[in-house]
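All the exercises in this workshop are built on plain-text protein records. A record pairs a protein's sequence with a compact description of its fold. The structure tokens are whole numbers drawn from a learned vocabulary of backbone shapes. Once this layout is familiar, the rest of the handout is easier to follow. An example says more than a description, so a record of this kind follows.
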Amino acid sequence: MPSIDLDRIQFQSRELIQLFSFLKRTVQTVAPIHISGPAGSGKTTWAQWLILQWPSLAIKEMDGRYLSVQEFREQTQSMISGLICIENIDNLDMQAQREIVEFLEHRNHSNQIKIITTSRKKLRDLVTEELFRLDLFCKLSVLQIELPALKNISEEIPTVAEFYLRVFEILYKKEKLKFSAEAIDKLIHASWPGNFTELESVVERAVVIAQDSTIHIENIVFQFENSMDISQELLTGVSLSEMERRLILQTLKLTEQNRTKAAQILGISIRTLRNKLHEYKEEGHL
């Protein structure tokens, strides 16, 4: 699946224009940079753009969801220069966090090591909850970028959707595709719980099922439109715990009971999801 080519996108929202300008001003420094944002907001895309700006450096890419102390040691023990990119660093256990802190503290200042990290959750919130080390947070977040949810920058949707359209036009061997005005309007006013990742999927689906050169409104099909968008009338008088229960159960239904996918969409851990389901079972909701 393609990621957004940041150099080819003409950003429309003030938020992304400012973020990309900041990124370009600071890219040549070795200062650590942390990128946070909700699932599907483009963290990997922005991290990969940064990596491409350092073509001469050896690159070590890791995933905090699976990173162990041993693997980190093996990857970095001989490093005197290079680039380290750790995605999903909010998933690191305390032992791995300590190992990274020690690595950074013992790093000689003459070494040229660039560190890029990403997280779905805000690290400062995890620090407050004592789930992330304060010293590591301070070391990793010298420079910070917080990517917004797509619904908050809807002016970006036509441009990015057009980019995806051109990519999938080539992939599926179709020519001169275009969106109808109604299709674009539907995209702009969607809620986008999956952010750019969902937009990409929706555009790909539209290209596949389109029967002519125009992407019509009926070709814009959402996975979540009937079950994730809850009207104000239905929410009136509903407690927060009840809203949470409905959202969790609806997401599980949409993912065909795949707990890993559901937890990713909801932005919670598998353990939290498991505990919630156990609670619902005891209450007789399951």
User: Anything to note?
Assistant: Confidence is low (pLDDT under 50) at residues 226-235. The two ends are 36 Å apart (CA to CA). The first helix runs from residue 14 to 26. The beta strands are 33-36, 59-63, 81-87, 112-119, 143-146, 178-179, 214-215.
